[in-house]
Design brief:
Elements lengths: L1 E5 L12 H9 L4 E3 L12 H13 L3 E6 L10 H21 L3 E4 L19 H21 L2 E5 L9 H11 L4 E6 L12 H12 L3 E6 L1 E4 L7 E4 L8 H11 L4 E4 L7 H15 L7
Parallel strand pairs: 1-2, 1-10, 2-3, 3-4, 4-5, 5-6, 6-7, 7-10
Antiparallel strand pairs: 8-9
């Protein structure tokens, strides 16, 4: 597997990527990054700014494993709104190509105006699924032209509500450029949180080679009088990361695993956790 830094001390503005930052990423044990660059609108960022980052990362032996899709709504029933989201994602794919990114990670968006990962009953309708398929079919040729995988992340709260639904939608799009970013926590239910091994194995059995990357995030049930599953730093919950790493390796030893949910201060312990598990399982970590 390849181990990538996900967020943490990475800047939100690509103009703040420096040689010192690249050396820190390398020294912390990562061979690449996933950063969202929230400050860099994909429709306004000039190519030379992205290519500067690409050159700098390459000089330090780092890869851009994922860029972001900028939280667009790909499921809106109003086709003009949906099409605007599709255009935003297409611009993000082009920007990711300039960055030399292997992939974009993005979700389908949400009908909830308060956030792209928040629940809304219209997220789970047949209309939302059809709109998402239409959006992804529009974006697939742009992904191919940019040489950037479009990796869709699911969650119980949005249209990609399960591994099964995600597989159906990816199969309907039918493009090798539209894949799944597997987030280990996002589909875990209350009962599954106490047996994540079975859940993870089911997800991989359903999705198989559709998975092109992994956000390795932990999850646990909190002691409250309403259901609350909290996701967060690897090592704090019940996620069976050994099974996650093994199933990712079985798909391809070249796939990136990006720990998620930790703070910058927690990075050393998280790196030690994953490197220790990989060594225990006899799984090589690709460093270049």
């Amino acid at each position: 597997m390849r181990l990538g830094l996900n967020g943490c001390y990475l800047p939100s503005d690509m103009r703040e990527v420096t040689p010192e930052l690249c050396r820190r990423v390398r020294n912390d044990g990562f061979s690449g990054i996933f950063t969202r660059f929230r400050a860099n609108d994909p429709r306004e960022t000039p190519r030379h700014e992205a290519e500067r980052v690409r050159t700098l990362l390459a000089h330090h032996g780092l890869r851009m494993y994922q860029a972001t899709g900028f939280w667009q709504n790909l499921v809106h029933p109003d086709d003009s709104v949906r099409a605007e989201g599709s255009r935003t994602l297409q611009a993000a794919l082009q920007l990711a190509g300039w960055l030399g990114s292997r992939a974009i990670d993005t979700g389908p968006g949400s009908m909830n105006p308060r956030g792209p990962w928040f629940p809304h009953p219209e997220n789970w309708t047949p209309v939302a699924r059809r709109q998402l398929i239409k959006s992804l079919k529009e974006c697939a040729p742009v992904a191919q032209d940019a040489n950037v995988l479009l990796s869709m992340e699911g969650h119980q709260l949005v249209t990609l509500e399960s591994a099964e639904v995600t597989a159906e939608i990816l199969d309907a799009v039918d493009s090798p450029w539209v894949t799944c970013d597997y987030d280990s926590a996002n589909w875990i239910t209350l009962k599954e949180v106490y047996d994540t091994t079975s859940a993870v194995n089911r997800h991989f059995d359903v999705l198989g080679a559709r998975i092109s990357s992994c956000h390795a995030k932990d999850i646990w049930a909190e002691d409250r009088l309403s259901v609350h599953l909290q996701d967060g730093c690897p090592g704090k919950g019940t996620m069976d990361f050994r099974t996650v790493l093994l199933r990712m390796h079985q798909l391809s030893p070249d796939l990136p695993v990006l720990p998620e949910g930790c703070s910058s201060d927690e990075v050393p312990q998280v790196v030690a956790l994953f490197r220790g598990m990989a060594a225990e399982l006899g799984l090589p970590i690709i460093e270049e």
